[in-house]
Each structure stands twice: as structure tokens, then as C-alpha cells.
Amino acid sequence: MEHIIIIGGGGAGAALAHDLTLRGFEVSLFEKGELTSGTTGRHHGLLHSGARYAVHDRAAAVECIEENRILRTIAPQALEQNDGLFVALSQDDEEYGETLLDACRTSGIKAKKISAAEARALEPALTPEVRGALQVPDATMDAWRLAMYFFATARRSGATFHPFCEVQGIDTRAGRVTGVEIIDYTAGKTRTVKGDLVVNAAGAWAGRVAALAGIDVPIQPGPGVLVAVEGRVTNMVINRMHPAGEGDIIVPQRGLSILGTSLWLADDPEDISPPKEHVDRITALCARMVPAVGEAAVRSVWSAARPLIRDAEASSPQQISRTFECYDHKVIHGVEGIVSLLGGKATTVRAMAEKTAGLICHKTGHEIPCRTRTTPLIPWRCFFSDAPRGGLPRSAP
Questions:
Q1: How many degrees, rounded to 5, is the angle at CA 157 between CA 364 and CA 176?
Q2: What's the predicted TM-score (pTM) here?
Q3: In what order do the strands lie in the sheet with 139-141?
Q4: Both 228 and 353 in a single domain?
Q5: Where does a domain end: 274, 309, 344?
Q6: pLDDT digit string (tens) for 146-195?
Q7: What values do phi and psi take at 51, rounded to 5?
Q8: Which residues have C-beta within 8 Å of that of residue 22, sequence separation ≥ 6?
Q9: How far apart are CA 225 and CA 212, in angstroms?
Q10: Which of 309, 336, 358 is the endpoint of a domain?
Q11: How far apart are CA 185 and CA 67, in angstroms?
């Protein structure tokens, strides 16, 4: 079978390696740092029900609820299936809640309207000002471990992973990509790796990777600040019942609570230091939903760059769709042998991989069905307990 090179060691790259190995392809993945060291290892860990996007981004909402259900089946140990609440604190929130409830039903999201008393019975730490809530099937994932479930399963199926190997060039001959040039930081050497097809799955860094092949892709890094405070202030995911904005979500993670998030647009996915005013604003807004947040000690603050697809018509960064696209650069730019996977979310990495692997099958002349919807993932610990397989395939000194 053909040799597929994946650039990017985040959740999307991991899920794609899993899908492709199940379809029989030879897979090599390269990541310039440690696996999951980009956006995948920095998000808040919400397994979206899709409710957050149901009103203004139905496509993303439908993708999220479908993948939510699949991940609960194939990787239940990677999740805390704790549900979520959208809480209303004002009359405007309550009015929006009716729109949200209708949008959830239209998108196939099971949402239940509950009273303020019922909400506080479920989550006693909620503010006494709560006026009502919607209960939705949100859940919590471990940002690192869910990706490692995909990595572990893919490696057991034969994929090879190469962290600390940065792609510094994409070899193109007569309009066709033939491989990549990498620098292996662990060995201090550069190598050329040949492949039949290259997949740009670098997330917020996808623009940099595409540029190596002389291609421009519509990727827009969208950084946001996250704040971890000591203590698990709630057991369910808490969202403010209004259009998605800043400081309107609290995600419990083990003994911490993750507060999110702000959003701005950037040119460089690495130049995203968290502004202090964002931290203060997020904390204050989340404390309106759960007052204990304002009294909790801050454990850490960081930023993560969302891999947004540019949208000149969006009225604000929050209105940019969280859906994903797979670009065949032969069709768009006349360059054969390379495709780019753009956009998406941690919740939808399996679906992103399915679409990309389907395109790869089409391009390579194979009709191989996807098996990832029902194939259970092996535990993340197996990635570390299983013996590594092989070195760099088809490489030249």
C-alpha cells in the first residue's frame, strides 16, 4: 500500500494515522515537538455536545453531537461523562434559552429545560441568581490522553511516529510532491523521507507547512486564554446561556476547574502570550456563574491557538465556524500529492480523519471503508508500554 506522510502530531494527526492504518496504508507521522505539544495539549478538555454552536453554527453542532456519541462508544475510559448545564442569569439569557433549545432539537442534541431549583440541586455552587438552565450531553476529556488513545491504537496497527522531527521542506517535482525534508532534533541530522502522499495536519501551523510547498491556505490562528483554578468547583460543565463569547464556560478537570476563554486573531500561532486583562475578565465572568471561582487560587494560565478557517464575512471572531475542511491541492492549486486538513475541534478529530482518509482513498484509487466509527481504541498507556516499531521508512541520508 501507499506510504502516507502526516505532518502534525496533534489529535487530528493521531486520528488520521489510526484511520489510515485500519485501511491498510503505511503511515509515518512527523511532529516538530513532543506529540500533543501544540493546541491539542492546551485546550480546556470539553467534549462538546454541540449546544454551544447550535444557534449560529449548525454544521459544527451536528458534527459535535455525532462525534460525542461515537467517542463515548470507542473510548469511554478517556471521558468523564458528566453532562453540562447552560445557566440563565438574566431575562435576556432566558429568552436566548428558548432559541437555544429549539436549535438543539433541530441539530439532534438532547437538551432538557430545568428550573433554577433543579439546577442548584445538581450543582449547589451555582450562583443564587440562576433563573433556569438547559441540561445537555457535554462531557469532559483529558486533552492529552484522548489523543494518545488514537496514537496507541495506530502504532499497534503499524504506524510510526517521529516527535522532535520538524519538516523544513516539501519536495516537489514537476508539480507533484514526492516527500519531505526533515531535521531530526534528537539525532541532530537532516533527512529526506519519500512518500506517495503528504497530509498537512498541522492545525494552527498549517499555513506555515503549506507555504513550504508554495501553497496558501485559509488558516487563521485564533488564540484564547485559559485559566486553571484550584479545586473542582462543579462536577458538570457549566456554560452561560447566551451566544458563545468570553468567560462563559467552566470545565472540571480532576481536581481543577478550567475557565475559558477569550478569543483574538493572530498571524503567528506561537506569539500568543496571555494578556493579564483577559485573565481578570475571564475569572470575573465565570465567577458570576459560580462565585467560588472568584475565591479559588489560580494554578496556571496559558493560551492556545485555535485552527480557524478564515471567514471575511464573520462579524466577530466568535462567529467564525468551528467546522473543518479537507483541501486537495491538486484541484485547488495544481499541486499533486498533498492535501491539507484545516479547522475542526478536539471533539471532531475522528470525523476529520474519516473525511481526509476518504479523500486519500479516492486519490490513490482504493475503495476501503472507514472502520473508526466502531473500532474501540486501546488505552493510552499502551503507547508507552508497547515497544516502538521501526525507524524512518524510505529515508535517504
A1: 25
A2: 0.95
A3: 46-47, 139-141, 79-80
A4: no
A5: 309
A6: 999 999 999 999 999 999 999 999 999 999 999 999 999 999 999 999 99
A7: -60, -35
A8: 157, 370, 371, 372, 375
A9: 29
A10: 309
A11: 36
